[in-house]
Design goal:
Blueprint: H1 2-45, E1 48-50, E2 57-59, H2 63-70, H3 74-103, H4 110-125, H5 128-138, H6 145-152, H7 169-194, H8 198-206, H9 211-222, H10 224-239, H11 243-246, H12 260-270, H13 274-303
Antiparallel strand pairs: 1-2
């Protein structure tokens, strides 16, 4: 009888240990089916020439990669995505962090904080396509808000065909994105600063540290993990850039505002060159993964 009870107890303990894994299994299967298998399949397809209208696949080795790196728009895309990344890190992460510090400082009253948080976050709730269409009207050369404002201020000489100028188009798109996403990063950093214990801040005040010193020495270091997340989100978003360009210039004029995400879409759905699209996807994956790993390693080495 005692042996039976012990066996039942051992069986119950074993089943109890398995229970968490059973709960994890559906999520694991979804990640496997919708993330890892497609990534592996995309890497495999990058070595083939294939079409949406044909069942056959022709192995071409590294030919797709050679065509991708020799494409006339390759360096234009790298330049545009890198510009977007650098400016977004400065404005969204840098300026967004400064705004978050100001919102959490005693300079802003509690009621005003809530109002400003909502104001800054509202643009991030609008769909990318809607924002793209809205800014197309803003940048419109004849009746657009930007040129109309410049004319009203007596600055008619500064009016431009903003999206029609090959030198300005990508900067106009980048400016649009900063308007939309800076508030999102600001809100993430606000939450991080709110989680910093008041004891540290009060101790710094007792030691005579001013607002700037408290921000640099206490708030930002203690919110470093969230800051790292914001940096990685921004970098990945910069190299996945697609909708903002597609809804405004579609890569034009010429290829002056071409980016990697749009190039992938055009090859997959317009040119029916799925091999080239797969190579572009692999390149985006590798570059974002590499930058993220370097960023995490640098952050950990700083902690040590």
């Amino acid at each position: 009888m005692l042996l039976r009870l012990l066996n039942n107890k051992e069986g119950h303990m074993r089943s109890k240990k398995r229970t968490p894994y059973l709960y994890m299994l559906p999520g694991l299967l979804m990640v496997l089916v919708f993330v890892y298998i497609p990534v592996i399949a995309n890497c495999v397809y990058s070595f083939f020439r294939l079409s949406s209208y044909s069942q056959g696949m022709t192995f071409v080795g590294l030919d797709n990669y050679v065509r991708f790196f020799r494409n006339e728009t390759f360096w234009i895309m790298i330049r545009n995505n890198s510009l977007y990344c650098i400016i977004s890190l400065i404005v969204q992460v840098g300026f967004g962090t400064v705004i978050a510090l100001l919102l959490e400082s005693k300079l802003v009253k509690t009621r005003a904080r809530n109002i400003f948080r909502n104001i800054y976050y509202i643009p991030a709730l609008i769909s990318l396509t809607a924002v793209g269409l809205m800014f197309t009207f803003v940048y419109e050369p004849n009746l657009g808000l930007l040129n109309s404002a410049l004319k009203a201020l007596g600055l008619s000489s500064m009016t431009q065909s903003w999206l029609g100028d090959s030198k300005l188009a990508i900067y106009c798109i980048i400016a649009m994105s900063q308007w939309q996403f800076t508030g999102y990063i600001t809100l993430l950093m606000v939450v991080a600063f709110q989680n910093v214990s008041e004891d540290y801040i009060e101790a710094a005040i007792v030691d005579g540290a001013g607002p700037v010193r408290r921000a640099i020495s206490i708030l930002i270091p203690l919110a470093k993990e969230q800051l790292l997340v914001c940096i990685i989100i921004t970098i990945i978003g910069a190299f996945k850039l697609f909708t903002e360009v597609y809804s405004t210039t579609a890569g034009g004029p010429g290829n002056s505002s071409q980016v990697l995400g749009l190039f992938l879409y055009q090859n997959a759905f317009l040119h029916d060159d799925l091999g080239m699209a797969a190579v572009t996807g692999v390149f985006i994956f590798v570059i974002t993964m590499a930058i993220s790993i370097v960023q995490i390693r640098v952050s950990r080495s700083g902690e040590q």
